[in-house]
């Protein structure tokens, strides 16, 4: 019954319907975006695919009292998606949230409010405790032996296997496949399942020097390149990022968010201008969703009296 619920999310939105949209830029290369953000209103983009096998494989084991636990920051797209799965499939969920200070302020945070409204229980831990997620995971697995504990960002082998479904016959036609990189699961799946002649570029929004190795461990393939796209650090939003996102939406009618896809596209535009890609290259970027984060970002921008994301 529960499995039926999770499968149904896929059946309602068949893969074939995910459009690849050309971004007409009048340059010597052609740029496209695969709109994975459209796959589901609440479990959007890569989150959908990273959670798909994780949740279905777990439910296949028929836990008597299913329970899903995961980790994330205050604005986490992953936490938001896990809470939505919980609500859709009728599974209780627990989010371990970085930042004890949010304990009394979570109602002011749209991501946490949404997750809570989906029935997710929230446990706030200090940054120090959060850094030791492995220990917390061990403890939680002991406490809740039947629970599915999904790592931060959803990245694990099942997630990588799920990302395969973002690739199909149409994506084979591109020279470059581009994605934003946080924990590395999405690029790992793209690298693992793309064609041998395709180049994969990861736009790294976090300053994590171990990412190259982490991704390689997940794929055993070294057909990817990481390019720093952090624009001053993870979660930092510069005015130039806001301007880029607003201009992009106005011109191409595609919304981007400021933490992942906005920074990736801004960097890609810079690279195109610097002739990084050979002439006539066909470049495909994956829109990995995360648009739920715009509301929270705008609250912060508003407090700082800055331009908002439209
Ligand atoms: C919108 C969005 N794009 C890209 C990523 C990066 O994915 P990954 O953590 O698999 O590298 C994330 C994080 O999960 C995300 O929320």
UniProtKB/TrEMBL annotation:
<feature type="active site" description="Nucleophile">
    <location>
        <position position="76"/>
    </location>
</feature>
<dbReference type="InterPro" id="IPR036052">
    <property type="entry name" value="TrpB-like_PALP_sf"/>
</dbReference>
<feature type="modified residue" description="N6-(pyridoxal phosphate)lysine">
    <location>
        <position position="47"/>
    </location>
</feature>
<dbReference type="InterPro" id="IPR001926">
    <property type="entry name" value="TrpB-like_PALP"/>
</dbReference>
<dbReference type="Pfam" id="PF00291">
    <property type="entry name" value="PALP"/>
</dbReference>
<comment type="similarity">
    <text>Belongs to the ACC deaminase/D-cysteine desulfhydrase family.</text>
</comment>
<protein>
    <submittedName>
        <fullName>D-cysteine desulfhydrase</fullName>
        <ecNumber>4.4.1.15</ecNumber>
    </submittedName>
</protein>
<keyword id="KW-0663">Pyridoxal phosphate</keyword>
<dbReference type="InterPro" id="IPR027278">
    <property type="entry name" value="ACCD_DCysDesulf"/>
</dbReference>
<feature type="domain" description="Tryptophan synthase beta chain-like PALP">
    <location>
        <begin position="22"/>
        <end position="289"/>
    </location>
</feature>
<dbReference type="GO" id="GO:0019148">
    <property type="term" value="F:D-cysteine desulfhydrase activity"/>
</dbReference>
<keyword id="KW-0456">Lyase</keyword>
């Amino acid at each position: 019954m529960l499995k039926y619920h999770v499968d149904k999310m896929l059946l309602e939105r068949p893969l074939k319907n995910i459009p690849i949209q050309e971004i007409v830029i009048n340059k010597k290369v052609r740029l496209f975006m695969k709109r994975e953000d459209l796959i589901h209103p609440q479990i959007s983009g890569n989150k959908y695919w990273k959670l798909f096998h994780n949740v279905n494989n777990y439910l296949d084991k028929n836990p008597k009292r299913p329970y899903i636990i995961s980790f994330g920051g205050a604005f986490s797209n992953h936490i938001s998606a896990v809470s939505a799965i919980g609500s859709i499939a009728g599974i209780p969920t627990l989010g371990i949230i970085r930042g004890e200070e949010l304990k009394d302020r979570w109602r002011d945070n749209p991501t946490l409010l949404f997750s809570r409204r989906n029935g997710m229980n929230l446990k706030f831990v200090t940054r120090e405790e959060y850094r030791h997620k492995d220990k917390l995971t061990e403890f939680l697995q002991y406490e809740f032996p039947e629970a599915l504990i999904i790592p931060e960002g959803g990245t694990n082998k099942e997630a990588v296997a799920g990302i395969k479904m973002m690739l199909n016959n149409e994506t084979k036609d591109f020279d470059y496949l581009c994605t934003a990189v946080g924990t590395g699961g999405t690029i790992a799946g793209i690298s693992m399942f793309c064609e041998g002649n395709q180049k994969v570029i990861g736009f790294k929004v976090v300053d994590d020097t171990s990412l190259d190795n982490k991704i390689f461990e997940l794929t055993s393939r070294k057909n990817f390149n990481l390019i720093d796209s952090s624009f001053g650090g993870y979660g930092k939003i510069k005015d130039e990022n806001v301007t880029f996102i607003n201009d992009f939406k106005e011109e191409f009618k595609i919304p981007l968010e400021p933490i992942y896809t906005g920074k990736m596209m801004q960097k890609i535009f810079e690279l195109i201008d610097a002739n990084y890609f050979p002439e006539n290259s066909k470049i495909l970027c994956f829109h990995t969703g995360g648009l739920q984060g715009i509301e929270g970002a705008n609250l912060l921008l508003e407090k700082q009296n800055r331009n908002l994301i439209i």
